[in-house]
C-alpha cells in the first residue's frame, strides 16, 4: 500500500484514479509515501523522510521547497498546461476589461438609482467610458509555454498583431504556436513595440523583476501591462513610477497589491487564474497519473527538478536512482551490480543540470546488500527498488 497525504482538497475524480487496493489517502498521514498539494505552503512544515515524491495539482511550485527536496532525491511533479485554458481566458478577459473600461463602467451603473431619468443619465455619462478595440493592437507575450502559446493564438484570432519572446521554447510549443506570431529578438524589442504586454513565465532569480526600470524606459506610453504569472515578475517600484507617469496606462493583475487597491489605473483580481472547476480537475487528473507512474514504475514525467525518464518494464526488478550529476556514476553503478552478480536487463539514464536519474531493470531480485552498496556511492541521493 502507498500512503498519500493530501494537503488541500483534491478533485475527487483525480483521487479516484488511485486504486483502493494500492493506495490510501488522507489529510493526516503518518510516514506518507507521497504528498498531493495545491496551494498549501510546504516551506513551513517538516516533510517526512518517508516521502518519495511531491505532486502539485497546478503549474507553479513556489509553495514547495524544491531545492531541499532535490538534495533528498525527491522529485516534485506539477501539471503544466492543465490549467492553461483557464488562464488564457482570464488574460483575454483582462485585456477586454482594460480596453473597454468595463470595471469603471460597472461601478458607474451600480451607483445609479432607479428613476425616470435613468436612461438620460446613462446616455449622458457613457462617453466617460469610451474605450478602444483589441483588433489591430500589438500584444507582446513573454514566455511561450503552454499558457503563453494559448494566449498568443487567442489574441491573433481576435485580430491582434502578436509578438512573442521565449529563448527556451520547446518543440511542442513551437508546433502549437500560430505561424502568424512574430518572434522578438530581445525583451527590449518586445517591450518597445507592444500596446499590451502579458507575462507567462515562472518566478525565479532570472525572471524576478524582469519588467523593471529599464523596461519602463522603452515602452510605449499608455501600455496595458498584464500579469497573470507571478507577483514578483513586475518590479514594484517601476510599476508605481510607470503608473504615476502614465507610461503604464493600465495594470491588470491577478495579484492584488495593498498600495495600489485605490489606483484607478489598476484592475486587480483575487488570483482567479486557475480557479475553474475544469482546471482544478485537469490538474488533479494529470498529477495523480504522474504520481502513480512514479510510485509504481519509477518513471518521471513533468518533474520540475529531475529529468524526464521513462522506460517500459522488463525483467524481475527495477532500481530507481536519483543522484548528483557527476562523471563516472554509470560506471560505478555497473560495477556494484556486477560485484553483486546482478545482470542489467535494460537501463536508462538522464540528467538535468546538477541532478540525474536512472532506471535499471534487472534479471534477478535485488538484495538489500546491493541497495546499501549503491546508496554508499558518493553523490547518490536516493535508491528505491520496485517489484522485488
Write the layout of secondary structure elements.
Elements lengths: L1 E5 L5 H4 L7 E4 L7 E4 L15 E4 L9 H6 L4 E2 L6 H16 L2 H9 L7 H8 L12 E5 L3 H12 L3 E5 L5 H6 L5 E2 L3 H7 L2 E4 L13 H6 L4 E5 L8 H10 L2 E6 L12 E3 L8 H21 L19 E8 L4 H11 L4 E9 L2 E8 L5 H8 L4 E7 L2
Parallel strand pairs: 1-2, 1-3, 3-4, 4-5, 6-7, 6-9, 7-8, 9-10, 10-11, 11-12
Antiparallel strand pairs: 13-15, 13-16, 14-15
Helix pairs in contact: 3-6
Would you write up a description of this structure?
This protein has helices at residues 12-15, 66-71, 84-99, 102-110, 118-125, 146-157, 171-176, 187-193, 213-218, 236-245, 277-297, 329-339, 368-375; strands at 2-6, 23-26, 34-37, 53-56, 76-77, 138-142, 161-165, 182-183, 196-199, 223-227, 248-253, 266-268, 317-324, 344-352, 355-362, 380-386. The two termini are 15 Å apart. Helix 3 crosses helix 6. The protein is of the alpha/beta class and 388 residues long.
Query: What is the number of helical segments per DSSP (H or I, 4+ residues)?
Result: 13
In whole angstroms, the N-to-C terminal distance is 15 Å
Regions with little confidence, pLDDT below 50 for 5+ residues: none
Strand fraction:
15-25%
Q: Summarize the amount of helix as a percent range.
A: 25-40%
The Rg value, from CA coordinates, equals 25 Å
Report the strand count.
16
Shape, per Cα inertia axes: elongated
Structural class: alpha/beta
What is the residue-mean pLDDT, rounded to a whole number? 95
Give the biggest beta sheet. Answer: 7 strands, parallel
Order of helices and strands: EHEEEHEHHHEHEHEHEHEHEEHEHEEHE
Amino acid at each position: 500500500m502507498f500512503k498519500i497525504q493530501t494537503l488541500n482538497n483534491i478533485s475527487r475524480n483525480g483521487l479516484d484514479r488511485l486504486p483502493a487496493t494500492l493506495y490510501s489517502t488522507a489529510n493526516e498521514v503518518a510516514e506518507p509515501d507521497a504528498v498531493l498539494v495545491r496551494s498549501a505552503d510546504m516551506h513551513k512544515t517538516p516533510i517526512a523522510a518517508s516521502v518519495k515524491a511531491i505532486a502539485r495539482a497546478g503549474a507553479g511550485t513556489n509553495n514547495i521547497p524544491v531545492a531541499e527536496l532535490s538534495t533528498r532525491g525527491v522529485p516534485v511533479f506539477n501539471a503544466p498546461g492543465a490549467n492553461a485554458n483557464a488562464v488564457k481566458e482570464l488574460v483575454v478577459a483582462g485585456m477586454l476589461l482594460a480596453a473597454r473600461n468595463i470595471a469603471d463602467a460597472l461601478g458607474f451603473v451600480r451607483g445609479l438609482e432607479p428613476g425616470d431619468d435613468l436612461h438620460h443619465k446613462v446616455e449622458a455619462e457613457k462617453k466617460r467610458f469610451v474605450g478602444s478595440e483589441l483588433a489591430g493592437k500589438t500584444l507582446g507575450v513573454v514566455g511561450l509555454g503552454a499558457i503563453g502559446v494559448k494566449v498568443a493564438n487567442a489574441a491573433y484570432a481576435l485580430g491582434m498583431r502578436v509578438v512573442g519572446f521565449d529563448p527556451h521554447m520547446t518543440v511542442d510549443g513551437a508546433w502549437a504556436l500560430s505561424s502568424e506570431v512574430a518572434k522578438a529578438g530581445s525583451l527590449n524589442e518586445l517591450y518597445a513595440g507592444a500596446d499590451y504586454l502579458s507575462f507567462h513565465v515562472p518566478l525565479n532569480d532570472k525572471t524576478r523583476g524582469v519588467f523593471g526600470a529599464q523596461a519602463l524606459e522603452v515602452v510605449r506610453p499608455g501600455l496595458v501591462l498584464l500579469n497573470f504569472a507571478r507577483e514578483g515578475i513586475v518590479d514594484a517600484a517601476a510599476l508605481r513610477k510607470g503608473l504615476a507617469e502614465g507610461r503604464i496606462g493600465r495594470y491588470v493583475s491577478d495579484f492584488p497589491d495593498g498600495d495600489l487597491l485605490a489606483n484607478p489605473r489598476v484592475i486587480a483580481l483575487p488570483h482567479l487564474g486557475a480557479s475553474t472547476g475544469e482546471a482544478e480537475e485537469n490538474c488533479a487528473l494529470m498529477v495523480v497519473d504522474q504520481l502513480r507512474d512514479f510510485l509504481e514504475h519509477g518513471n518521471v514525467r513533468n518533474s520540475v527538478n529531475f529529468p524526464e525518464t521513462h522506460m517500459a518494464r522488463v525483467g524481475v526488478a527495477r532500481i530507481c536512482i536519483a543522484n548528483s550529476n557527476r562523471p563516472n556514476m554509470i560506471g560505478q553503478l555497473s560495477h556494484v551490480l556486477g560485484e553483486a552478480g546482478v545482470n542489467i536487463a535494460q537501463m536508462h539514464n538522464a540528467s538535468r543540470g546538477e541532478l540525474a536519474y536512472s532506471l535499471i531493470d534487472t534479471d534477478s531480485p535485488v538484495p538489500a546488500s546491493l541497495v546499501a552498496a549503491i546508496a554508499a556511492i558518493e553523490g547518490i541521493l536516493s535508491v528505491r527498488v520496485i517489484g522485488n
